[in-house]
Design a protein that fits this description.
383 residues; alpha/beta; Rossmann fold; 2 domains; six-stranded parallel beta sheet; 15 helices; 16 strands
Length: 383
C-alpha cells in the first residue's frame, strides 16, 4: 500500500507534527508514504525531497510569503494535484479541508477516480475573522465538503458527530499519538544543570503558542491554588506569562504574586524543557472548539514521561487520558490543584501514575494507533 499524505502547515508548525507522526506510524507498519509539507523558508521555489525513514519520504513544497493569506497555497495545491495524478497511490490523505493545498487536489483527484480521505483536526469556523468571503468559505469547507468527501479521519468524537450530521459516511478517530522514538527522558538532573535549574525543586511545565478560549484564567487560577498549598513549587514555561495576564485582563482575577514562581525559559528545544520537570500543567478552555481538538503537546508530555494535570471537562484529551488512568484529573480547579500537590509530594502516588503511564504510552504510540488507520484504508479500497 502507498499513501500520499498532504499537510498544508509548514515544517515545525501546528498540523505538521500530527501529519509527521501519522506518517511515521504508517511507515513503521510497512506502508509506503509520501508526505507533502510546506517549507519553513519564507521564500523558496524548490521542491526538496528527503527520505527520513525506510518507507517515508518528505517533499518540501515551495513558499512565497507575502501575507498570511498569500504565500503560495494555490501553487502548492496544484503541485499536490500533479503528485496524485502522475504517481501511483492507493489513498490520498489530505489534512485541513479548508486549505487550498488540500482541497484543490482532493476535489480534482476525486473527480479523477482516486480514493480520498480528508483529515479534520480542529474547528476553524470560529477562529478567523467573520468577514466576507472568508467566513462563507470556511463554512463551506467544514459544512458542505463532508457531503462530497465521504471518508474522514478526525481527532475527536465531537468532530465525528459533526461530520455524520453533515453527510460523511466513513469516519475514523485517530488522536495525536506518541512517537516513542523521539523522546529519551533519562536524566532530569543533567537537563536541570544545563538550564541552571535547582536539582531539588518541584517543577511543573507548560508550553505552547496558543492561550485562548479562557485557558489563561483557568491555567493561572489553578497554579495560584497550587502555590497556596505549596509555595515551593515552580512553573517552567516558554511564553511570557505577564503579557498573557495583561492581554486577558486578569489583573483583578489572579493574584500577581504567582509570577514570582513562574520561570520563562524562552526558546530552547522542547525536549530540554520537558525533561526538566516533575509534571505538566494543561488547562483546556471553554467551547466546542476546545472539546473537538487534541493538542499535540499532550503527546509530547506523555512521551517525556510527564504526568499531566488537566481539567476534566469532556474534551477529547481529558476523556482519552481518563481511560488510561495516567493523568491527574478534576473538573474542579481547587481539587485539581490539591491532587497535583499531593502527586508532587508523594512518591507512592507517583509510582501508581507512572505504572499507568507506561501502558498508556504503548496504547497511544503512533505505531499502535495507525494500525486502525491501515484497516480503515483497506476498507475503502475494498469498497
Amino acid at each position: 500500500m502507498k499513501i500520499l499524505f498532504i499537510e498544508p502547515c509548514y515544517i515545525g508548525f501546528g498540523g505538521y507534527f500530527r501529519a509527521l507522526n501519522i506518517c511515521k506510524g504508517l511507515s513503521r507498519n510497512g506502508v509506503k508514504v509520501d508526505l507533502l509539507v510546506t517549507t519553513n523558508k519564507k521564500f523558496s521555489l524548490k521542491i526538496k525531497k528527503r527520505t527520513i525513514e525506510k518507507n517515508l519520504t518528505i517533499y518540501e513544497l515551495p513558499r512565497i510569503y507575502l501575507h498570511f493569506f498569500v504565500n503560495g497555497r494555490i501553487l502548492r495545491g496544484i503541485i499536490a494535484t500533479f503528485f496524485g495524478l502522475f504517481k501511483q497511490y492507493d489513498i490520498v490523505h489530505a489534512a485541513m479541508p479548508m486549505q487550498f493545498e488540500s482541497n484543490i487536489p482532493a476535489i480534482i483527484l476525486k473527480m479523477a477516480g482516486k480514493k480520498i480521505v480528508m483529515d479534520w483536526d480542529e474547528i476553524f469556523e470560529d477562529t478567523f475573522p467573520s468577514k466576507f468571503p472568508l467566513k462563507q468559505y470556511i463554512h463551506f469547507c467544514e459544512h458542505k465538503l463532508p457531503k462530497y468527501f465521504k471518508n474522514y479521519c478526525v481527532t475527536s468524537d465531537i468532530l465525528a458527530k459533526l461530520l455524520k450530521k453533515r453527510g460523511a459516511k466513513n469516519i475514523i478517530k485517530i488522536i495525536n499519538g506518541i512517537d516513542l522514538q523521539e523522546f529519551n527522558p533519562k536524566n532530569k538532573l543533567s537537563y536541570r544543570s544545563r538550564l541552571k535549574l535547582d536539582k531539588n525543586t518541584k517543577y511543573l511545565f507548560a508550553y505552547g503558542n496558543t492561550f485562548g478560549a479562557n485557558r489563561p484564567y483557568k491555567f493561572f487560577k489553578t497554579f495560584e491554588y497550587i502555590i497556596k498549598l505549596d509555595p515551593s513549587i515552580k512553573l517552567l514555561c516558554n511564553f511570557d506569562p505577564m503579557s498573557i495576564y495583561q492581554r486577558d485582563h486578569l489583573v483583578s482575577k489572579i493574584d500577581p504574586k504567582i509570577f514570582s514562581n513562574i520561570i520563562n525559559l524562552g526558546y530552547i528545544t522542547n525536549k530540554e524543557y520537558l525533561y526538566t520537570s516533575n509534571a505538566a500543567l494543561f488547562l483546556s478552555g471553554d467551547g466546542i472548539c476546545e472539546k473537538a481538538n487534541y493538542p499535540i503537546r499532550i503527546s509530547s508530555y506523555l512521551g517525556s514521561n510527564l504526568i499531566i494535570a488537566l481539567n476534566d471537562d469532556n474534551t477529547e484529551a481529558s476523556n482519552s487520558l481518563k481511560k488510561e488512568g495516567c493523568s491527574i484529573l478534576s473538573s474542579n480547579l481547587k481539587k485539581l490543584a490539591q491532587k497535583t500537590v499531593e502527586f508532587l509530594n508523594n512518591p507512592n502516588i507517583q509510582k501508581k501514575y507512572y505504572t499507568k503511564l507506561k501502558t498508556a504510552k504503548k496504547n497511544l504510540s503512533v505505531e499502535q494507533l495507525t494500525l486502525k488507520l491501515i484497516n480503515f484504508y483497506k476498507s475503502i479500497l475494498n469498497n
